[in-house]
Amino acid sequence: MERRLAAIVCADVAGYSRMMGVDEAGTHATFKAHRTAIYPIILNNGGRLVKNTGDGFLLEFPSIVGAIEAAIAMQMVMAERNEHLPADRSMQFRMGIHMGDVMADEDEVFGDDVNIAVRLESVAAPGGVAVSGKACHEAGKRLSVALVDAGPHRFKNIDEPIQVWTWQPAGSDASGPAPRASTGTSVANLPAQYRTAIVGVLPFANLSESADEYFSDGLTEDLIHALSLQSFYRVLSRNSTFSFKGRNVSTRLIAREIDASYLIQGSVRRAANKIRVTAELIAPETGEQLWTGRFDRDIGDLFAMQDELTTSLSAAIAAEIYRAEASAPPRSSSNDITAWDRFLKGLSYYYLQTKADFETAIGLFKEAIALDPTLSIARAYLATILTQAIHFGWIKGTREEWDTAMSLAESSVRLDPRSSFAFQILAYLHALEGHYEAAMDAAKRAVGLNPYDMGARGVLGACHLYSGEHRAAVELFTMAAQRGNSDPRYQFETFNAFSHYLLGQYDASLSWAREALYANPNHLQALTIRTAALAQLGRADEAANAAGVVLSNYPTLTVERYLRNFHWKLPADIAHFRDGLVKAGLPFSKLTLVESAPRLAADS
């Protein structure tokens, strides 16, 4: 049991029981969607989720200013999301904030000061924040907003009255709609014999009483367009699937008639100023439902909302088709399919995300390229997996390996100049090498080729990170995280940790590093940025322990040699990172290793 000073935020949804009574499944889905949207705000302010409480959550922050700023930012996002909803459909959080000495047992926190935060939540207005006098006084003038004195309150099981300060939003803080997608036509450049999966998008059914077919048809067309920007599979045209509109034909018969491997079907229902879209991805021959999703959105700007829905749908569905194809048996026994079969088998191992599976996947991708040197997507994936394996510390980052990855990325773009993914890995490798203009150009090409792909925007954020433009980087990383991008090709948590560190926001850097280490506890970059952030926060013992973890995983590491691989544009950024690593006690040079740890010198 550990005792520490912490800021606690307790939140719940006003009227949650009533909403569950009216629509249990819809309320739960909406709550999860809101929670996903505000989670990056918690991490950006250095917080962590202690636990979910059914209709709310409990958060811990190392800074009271960070806790209050995060709570207000979350409430402003919620005000924006609720703006166009009728009162009985809006979901409003009440948040209570206090700071004090808490007891920590593993990931849980306990104590009277936690209980006070819970009590404060009960007096917060829906959509508002209630802060204890102690927390308000400690934050002082460092807050960017003004709190209102609500006087002393007495709470159950709390002996002394608590002075309460409150905040409520004066209005929404709209950050603007997502960028509109290009309306140009895409032609997938992957050879037809390899795009063995054929996807049909059936017209979404309009379940509204009003004549809203223009919206359901428009959403279907936009989804066809968004999915066609992927070169991994073929997407049937509107003419192929709209002929089935209004016809009561089984999906199996439809699939056989149009020769589709997968079908996407869904519905649109409108109520007042809210749109609900449901969708499912099915394997029609077996009837298996591979994925299902439901999206509730405010109408607001209709085109912006339709773009946001299209982005969310295409991101979710494309990833599921990748996974399904990776585990599907070959559809042809011809020699032409062998390279594709090797690639898909490699993809199935890649998604398992372990060192042994990475090694197997690398071998299979290489086999696919040997069988067909023109297979662009195999080259892009091999470049990606080599880069990630180096970052994870699973293979040694030699000059030869980096040159191989760059060569693969360059050839992937040449072979498929319409592949957003190929330009993404090329952009990232250019950034790693310090080719800032080339990196930015490739990243912008990736976004232009597929504006719906949040991975492309995250890679653009990485280019901003390497160029020293950290606020722009954080904005793009946060956008990618809020859209729920879970594809293992994109691991932006560590990038976010670096940008926050270089902005001097060390608590937020720790939060993002923690997220990265949940997925991969041996991630070298996440381990080192965590170590440096702890040192800069003055948490010397924790920094020393973190440095020990780095050296236990990478015993020959020295700061001098490690930083040779960092080609950040600004020398001040390199110096800033070096300062944190040295403060934490990581050995600066080989000489330091020899003096302090002869065994490590022998090992190296």
Shape by Cα distribution: flat
- Give the DSSP E fraction (strand runs of 2 or more residues): 15-25%
Q: Helix/strand/pairing class, anyone?
A: alpha/beta
Under the CATH scheme, the architecture of the largest domain is: 2-Layer Sandwich
Q: Quickly count the helices.
A: 25
CATH fold description of the largest domain: Alpha-Beta Plaits
CATH-defined superfamily of the largest domain: Nucleotide cyclase, GGDEF domain
User: How far from one another are the termini?
Assistant: 38 Å
Characterize the main sheet. 8 strands, mixed
The beta-strand count equals 14
Total of domains: 4
- Please state the CA-atom Rg, rounded to the nearest Å: 26 Å
Describe the structure.
This protein has 604 residues and is of the alpha/beta class. It has four domains: 2-167, 2-Layer Sandwich (Alpha-Beta Plaits), CATH 3.30.70; 198-326, Rossmann fold (3-Layer(aba) Sandwich), CATH 3.40.50.10610; 336-416, Alpha Horseshoe (Serine Threonine Protein Phosphatase 5, Tetratricopeptide repeat); 516-604, no CATH class. Helices cover 53% and strands 16% of the residues. The protein has 25 helices and 14 strands. It has helices at residues 16-22, 24-44, 64-82, 112-123, 133-139, 213-228, 238-241, 251-258, 302-326, 338-350, 355-371, 376-391, 399-415, 420-433, 436-449, 454-467, 470-482, 492-502, 506-519, 524-536, 540-553, 559-563, 571-583, 590-596, 598-603, and strands at 2-13, 48-52, 56-61, 93-105, 108-110, 129-132, 148-153, 162-167, 198-201, 205-206, 234-235, 262-271, 274-283, 288-298. Strands 1, 2, 3, 4, 5, 6, 7 and 8 form an eight-stranded mixed β-sheet that branches. Strands 9, 10, 11, 12, 13 and 14 form a six-stranded mixed β-sheet that branches. It is flat, with a radius of gyration of 26 Å. Residues 171-195, 332-336 and 591-604 have low confidence and may be disordered.
